[in-house]
């Protein structure tokens, strides 16, 4: 039986399993990347539809704003995976492996070449995961904890992975506030002020009921790893066929 999950919502409203959160994260990420790769090249998507709070919105911006919710949900799922995985080593190995596999598709997405100065989000998640491991391993040695956290922060600055050092700090916020969902939502939202649309992700995170859900087995698990590089390659091919051929 799953333990009760702290939330800003009463327990009866916590209807989202881990599987449902994964689907929300994947769908919002796909929407974001459709905007970044395809709609950025499609002129009708740039036409202003309305103005809200002084900001002009078009289809492209709507897609990108919806996509902001993906990163916080992926960070939350990473933390849940860290807490419940049977093998910390294999979990970390998979993150690093798919960070490397995703690099060429990521470069093609932004530059249409094999080189790009920034790295994909798997690297950010991997650094956060290493920080989680270090915090737990050195829990009786706070000086070593601090050394590892700061060392990984320096790596995140020089690595220039997606969301950068801010994303790394956000992962630490998610970890340290893991047992206080309301506080996690407030502090996480404050940290994401520069991407405030991402704060809406905490609504779905607080609807999480602590259950695994319908996605089970290795095949389903690795689908979500493979989806990242494969969908990017698909979008790059579509962009080439529709706009660059």
From TrEMBL:
The keyword Transferase does not apply. The chain crosses the membrane at residues 20-39, 59-79, 91-109, 121-139, 146-165, 185-210, 222-242. The keyword Transmembrane applies. It holds the Pfam family TraX. Keywords: Membrane, Transmembrane, Transmembrane helix. This is TraX protein.
């Amino acid at each position: 039986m799953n333990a009760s999950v702290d939330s800003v919502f009463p327990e009866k409203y916590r209807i989202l399993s881990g599987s449902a959160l994964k689907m929300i994260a994947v769908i919002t990420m796909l929407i974001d990347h459709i905007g970044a790769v395809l709609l950025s090249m499609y002129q009708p998507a740039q036409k202003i539809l309305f103005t809200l709070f002084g900001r002009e919105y078009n289809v492209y911006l709507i897609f990108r704003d919806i996509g902001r919710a993906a990163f916080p949900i992926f960070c939350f799922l990473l933390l849940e995976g860290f807490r419940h995985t049977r093998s910390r080593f294999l979990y970390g190995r998979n993150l690093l492996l798919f960070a490397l596999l995703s690099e060429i598709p990521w470069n093609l997405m932004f530059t249409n070449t094999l080189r790009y100065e920034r790295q994909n989000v798997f690297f950010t998640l991997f650094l956060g995961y290493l920080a989680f491991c270090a915090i737990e391993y050195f829990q009786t040695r706070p000086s070593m904890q601090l050394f590892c956290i700061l060392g990984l922060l320096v790596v995140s600055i020089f690595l220039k992975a997606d969301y950068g050092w801010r994303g790394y700090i956000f992962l630490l916020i998610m970890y340290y506030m893991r047992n206080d969902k309301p506080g996690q939502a407030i502090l996480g939202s404050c940290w994401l002020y520069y991407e405030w649309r991402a704060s809406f992700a905490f609504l779905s995170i607080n609807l999480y009921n602590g259950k695994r859900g319908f996605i089970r087995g290795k095949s389903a698990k690795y689908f979500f790893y493979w989806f990242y590089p494969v969908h990017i390659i698909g979008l790059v091919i579509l962009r080439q066929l529709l706009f660059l051929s």
